[in-house]
């Protein structure tokens, strides 16, 4: 028993000493760990501040960039520019050019002295455009195909400010002509507006890819033609006009035609209520396309679908402009058949075309002799 007590008396100081040492080691580790922790907190704080600074800088940049679009209209049009026209900085309209309301022929006087080239192979369409712009003061020249247009544009004394370009023409079409215009350093900045009776997506894409700046769908509407000039021609300060449009002669005629075949009121909208102009265009159409029903039959039988498509495009615009409602609807349907490539369906239509054309011709002649 004494030996045990002696052993315990010896071991106790050793245990106490070892515990103290262990406690000191643990205390050291805790202190070291605490010293590290503030360092980490400072680092996290600094990172937070840096992040906040970056966020503030980003917001400041955003605030600075907001006022930049001082000319939002131009910025909106940039994505619409084709690669061929972007160099000139000209606007391009993917959608149809909008119609300006309450436009009369005298409205075009603000463009007096501007030089315009009209490229159109169809004499009826050409006559309509020239009549609509008659008395406007515009200096107008014409060409019947793309090749003739290029010759006029490249003449030493040429100074055209805008071109109205039919898309489908013989010799050289409007698309190829426009491509050459865009490749010519002397001509590339001239705005070119397409005249087309076909406004399907693929047709519009071809028009814009060629370098044209927009398109006017046929039949031409006075308000849209005015809008095109307003957009693309350098303007003089607009002077207000006190002129009031007077009802056209057609309103006084009192002749009622079958509106399902020949809608005179609809047609007058395309001739600015000018009855004498409408009669002139109607008479010219009957002469130029006297056998168009037979021509349709011949082209279908010969399977000359490309030539048939050109004929239908011309008829589509002209019949719409003249108010030939039944014929217009039929031609439009035939044009879609050709464009879809379902050519065998055309064999069912020659007889229907002949009858529809004869009905139109009777109504037209009845109106002309009244």
Explain how this protein is built:
The chain has helices spanning 2-65, 72-77, 123-132, 146-153, 174-183, 201-209, 222-232, 264-268, 275-288, 292-302, 305-322, 325-340, 350-368; strands at 115-119, 139-143, 162-166, 192-196, 214-217. The chain has 370 residues and is an alpha/beta fold. Among the domains are: 105-234, Response regulator (Rossmann fold, 3-Layer(aba) Sandwich), CATH 3.40.50; 264-369, Four Helix Bundle (Hemerythrin (Met), subunit A), CATH 1.20.120. The chain is globular, with a radius of gyration of 39 Å. It comes from Nitratifractor salsuginis (strain DSM 16511 / JCM 12458 / E9I37-1). One of its GO terms (biological process) is phosphorelay signal transduction system. GO terms for molecular function: ATP binding; protein kinase activity.
- Name the structural class: alpha/beta
- What percent of residues adopt helix (DSSP H or I)? 40-55%
List low-confidence stretches.
Answer: 1-10, 12-16, 37-87, 235-253
Task: Measure the end-to-end span.
Answer: 152 Å
One letter per element, helices H and strands E, the order comes to HHEHEHEHEHEHHHHHHH
Q: What portion of the residues fall into strands of 2 or more residues?
A: 5-15%
- Our Rg estimate from Cα atoms comes to 39 Å
Tell me how many strands there are. 5
* CATH class annotation of one domain: Alpha Beta
């Amino acid at each position: 028993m004494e030996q045990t007590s002696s052993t315990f008396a010896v071991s106790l100081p050793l245990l106490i000493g070892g515990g103290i040492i262990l406690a000191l080691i643990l205390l050291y580790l805790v202190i070291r760990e605490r010293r590290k922790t503030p360092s980490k907190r400072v680092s996290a704080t600094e990172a937070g501040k840096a992040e906040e600074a970056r966020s503030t800088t980003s917001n400041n940049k955003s605030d600075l960039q907001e006022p930049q679009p001082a000319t939002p209209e131009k910025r909106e049009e940039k994505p619409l520019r084709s690669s061929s026209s972007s160099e000139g900085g000209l606007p391009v309209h993917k959608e149809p050019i909008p119609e300006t309301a309450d436009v009369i022929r005298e409205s075009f006087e603000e463009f007096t002295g501007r030089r315009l080239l009209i490229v159109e192979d169809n004499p009826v369409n050409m006559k309509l455009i020239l009549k609509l712009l008659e008395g406007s003061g515009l200096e107008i020249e014409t060409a019947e195909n793309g090749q003739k247009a290029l010759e006029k544009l490249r003449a030493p004394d040429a100074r055209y400010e805008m071109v109205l370009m039919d898309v489908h023409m013989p010799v050289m079409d409007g698309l190829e002509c426009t491509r050459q215009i865009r490749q010519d350093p002397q001509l590339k900045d001239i705005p070119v507006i397409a005249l087309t009776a076909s406004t399907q997506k693929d047709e519009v894409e071809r028009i814009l890819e060629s370098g044209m700046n927009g398109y006017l769908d046929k039949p031409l509407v006075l308000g849209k033609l005015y809008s095109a000039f307003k957009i693309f021609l350098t303007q003089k300060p607009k002077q207000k006009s006190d002129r009031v449009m007077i009802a056209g002669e057609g309103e006084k005629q009192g002749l009622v035609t079958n509106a399902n075949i020949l809608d005179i009121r609809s047609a007058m909208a395309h001739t600015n209520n000018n009855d004498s102009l409408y009669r002139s265009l109607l008479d010219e159409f009957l002469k130029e396309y006297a056998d168009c029903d037979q021509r349709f039959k011949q082209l279908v039988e010969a399977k000359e679908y490309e030539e048939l498509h050109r004929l239908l495009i011309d008829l589509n615009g002209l019949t719409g402009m003249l108010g030939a409602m039944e014929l217009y609807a039929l031609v439009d349907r035939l044009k879609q058949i050709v464009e879809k490539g379902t050519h065998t369906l055309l064999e069912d239509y020659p007889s229907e075309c002949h009858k529809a054309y004869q009905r139109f011709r009777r109504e037209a002649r009845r109106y002309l002799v009244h």
